[in-house]
Each structure stands twice: as C-alpha cells, then as structure tokens.
Amino acid sequence: MMRVFYSAASPFAAKVRMAARHCDLELESVTANTTAEPADLLSANPLGKIPALVLDDGTTLYDSRVICDYFDRLTGGQLVPQGLDAWRAVRLIEATADGIADALILSLYEERFRPEEKRHQPWVDKQLRKADRGLAALETMLGDLPETLTTAHFAVAALLGWMGFRFEGKLESERPRLADWLAAFPDAFPAYGELRPRLS
Ligand SMILES: N[C@@H](CCC(=O)N[C@@H](CS)C(=O)NCC(=O)O)C(=O)O
C-alpha cells in the first residue's frame, strides 16, 4: 500500500489525503515531525517536507501538487479536468490556495523558529500581504470551480480548514464567502470532517 508522511495539522497533507480518498486510493498515513528531520522522511523527501509519498515499489514523490497529479494519472483523470478552460481555472485556484498556505506558514515559522530578537516584522508583513491578496483573489475565483471535485477543491478546503485554527476568526471577519464555502464543503465531500487539518 502507498504510504504518505503527514502531520494532522498540515494543509498540504490534508489536501493529498482528501484527494486520495476521493480517488478511492488506499493510503497508509505515517506521522512525521518535520522539525526533528527524521531519517525515514528525509529518505522519502530530501527537502524534509510533508506530504511525501512512498509508492509500493519504494520510489517516492513530493510535493502535494505532484502527488495529486500522480493520483489523477493513476485514476484516469479523477482530479484534474481535461478541457483547457476548466484545467486553467482548477490549476490557478490550486496554485493560489497553495501559495496562500506557503505565505502564512512562513509567517508562522518566523515566530516558531526564530528567537524574538532575530524576527523581522516587515518580512512577516510581506507574507501576510501576499496571503491577503491571495484570499481576495480566491474569493473571486470560487465561481470558477467545476461542480465535480478537483485538486483545487481539496487545496482550498485544506487551506481554509487550517486557517480555522491557525488564524481563527480571520475568514469569518474578512472573507465570509470563503467561510461559507468551507461550511458547505462537507455536503460535497463528507469525509472532510475526518480528513480536515486539525490540531492533532
Ligand atoms: N509545496 C509543498 C509545501 C509543503 C510544506 O510546506 N509542508 C510543510 C508542512 S504544512 C512542511 O513540511 N514544513 C516543514 C519544513 O518546511 O521544513 C507541497 O505542496 O507539498
């Protein structure tokens, strides 16, 4: 069975685990603490990031977009539409959601991994501006999501679910359409409650 290194809180890992479930692919989920740089994770992904996928033959794949592409190919296109317009919309929404997560994660890492005297607030602010512009764009893109579930749906749901506990209240106060979209997502994908990012 394929194995994925993940952590309960990771939005990128949640995206991949939701995509696998949607594709009816069995995955063994193995927790990894990226801070400790464990050998088994590093042998799957030299970058030491999660998610990292180990295939049945021992070969590995990362990052979340590549893993989702792999699932899409394995299952004859269950995650990414073929038509050019729909493909463009889905990949753009996914890239936007992932980019927001990247920026917000960097802003948190500044606090988590740097001693207070070495933190550089202008750099954090820059990441937060990226995220804010991305969230504004994402709100306008929601209508471009296809009706059938795609990698973009899972990327957006994972990002917004993660923000729910890392940036509590932000969506409700600043981007209520995104908050409403997430509240309705379990109707489209009932396994969201089980697979959403969470604080362990
Ligand atoms: N572009 C990567 C981003 C993955 C990522 O940043 N994962 C975080 C956890 S959510 C991580 O592993 N951080 C540890 C580190 O950067 O060393 C993907 O889409 O998989």
From TrEMBL:
GO terms for cellular component: cytoplasm. The keyword Magnesium does not apply. Keywords: Transferase. Residues 1-79 form the GST N-terminal domain. The keyword Transferase applies. GO terms for molecular function: transferase activity. PANTHER family: GLUTATHIONE S-TRANSFERASE OMEGA, PTHR43968. This is Glutathione S-transferase. It comes from Jiella endophytica.
